[in-house]
Amino acid sequence: MGKKVCIMTDMEGTAGVANFEDWCVPTGRNYDLGRQFLAWQVNGAVEGFFAGGASEVIVVDGHGPCALHAGLIDPRAWYQRGWFAELWPLCVDKSFDALAFVGQHAKSRTAYAHLAHSQSFSVLEIRINGVAVGEFGQLAMCASELGVRTIFGAGGQAFTEEAQQLVPGIEAVAVKRGLTSGSGDECTAKTYGKRNLSAISLHPQAAAERIRQGAERALNRMAQEPFGLVALRAPFVVEEWLRATEDASPLYGCSAPAATVAEALNAPLNWGPVPKDKRMV
Questions:
Q1: Can you tell me the distance from the alpha carbon of 5 to that of 37, in angstroms, rounded to the nearest whole number?
Q2: Mind listing the domains of the chain with CATH numbers?
Q3: Residue 84 pLDDT exceeds 80
C-alpha cells in the first residue's frame, strides 16, 4: 500500500536564496525568483516520493509570508496553506505515514548556518524538556507522538546535521552551507537577522535533482529501516529565550508541564526577566 507523505516547506533553506530582505519577503526584489527556486526543489521531492511508491503527497507552505505558488507545484501533489484549529501540530495528523522538509534552515545559535533562526530572529533559543529545537525539531517531535515518521530533510548543511542529531537515520540532503562562525549570542534581534548571510549554494536545479534522489531513497528505506521517530518522555515543558531589542531587555518564558509536546507548544508561556540560573549570554 502506498504511503501518504506531508512535505513541510520553508524558504530560507532553499538553494539559491541568498538573504532575507531580498529573497524571503514579498517586497524583496528577488522574491518571485526565490519562489521559483523553492518550487523546483519541492517538485524534486514530490517526484522522488512518487517514484518511491507514495500514494499521496501534500505540500504545505510553511513560510510566514507564503512562499509557494500553487500553480508551480507538481500537479500530482496537493497544496496546503494554513493550520488546523490549534497551531501545533501544524499540518500533521495520524493520517500521514511520513513527514519531510524542503527549504529548511537551522535553528537559532547554530554556527555555519545560513539564515538561522527559530520562528523569528528575535528568538535566542527554544527548548523542549531541555533539548534545543528549531522549527524542524518542534514539528518532528509533534509528528513522533502521533506515530508519523520524519524521514527526509533538505536545506542548509547545518540544518541537515541538526536533523540527523535529533532523528538518527533521517535521509538528509544539504543544498548549501553557511560560512559564518559562532553562535551570534551577542546580537540583538535586529542584528542577528543580518548576521548569517554568507553561504555557498548548489544551483537550484542541481539541488532539485539531489532532493529527488534523496526523497526516493528515504521512502524506499522507510520500508526496511525503523528510523524517523524521536524518543519522547512526558511530561513536556517548553522554555523560550528572547533576544534583547532596541527597546527591551532579554526575556525568558516557560510553560506549565503538559501531557504532549503539542499541548506544551500551544500553552501560554509565563514571561519575565531571564533568571540567573537560565542565563546563556
A1: 21
A2: 3-107+134-178+199-222 (3.40.50.10780)
A3: no
Average pLDDT across the chain, whole number: 96
Please check whether residue 105 is in contact with residue 10, taking contact to mean a CB–CB distance below 8 angstroms.
Answer: yes
**3-state DSSP assignment of residue 5:** strand
C-alpha cell belonging to residue 40: 523546483
106 is written with which cell numbers?
Answer: 537551522
Largest Cα separation within the chain, whole Å, is 56
pLDDT for 281 equals: 66
pLDDT at 83 over 90: no
Query: Which among 187, 157, 175 has a CA at the least distance from the CA of 37?
Result: 175
Instruction: List pLDDT tens digits, range 43-62.
Output: 999 999 999 999 999 999 98
End-to-end CA distance of the chain: 51
Cα separation, 281 vs 239, in Å, equals 16
Cell of 14: 532553499
Q: Which three cell numbers stand for residue 228?
A: 524517523
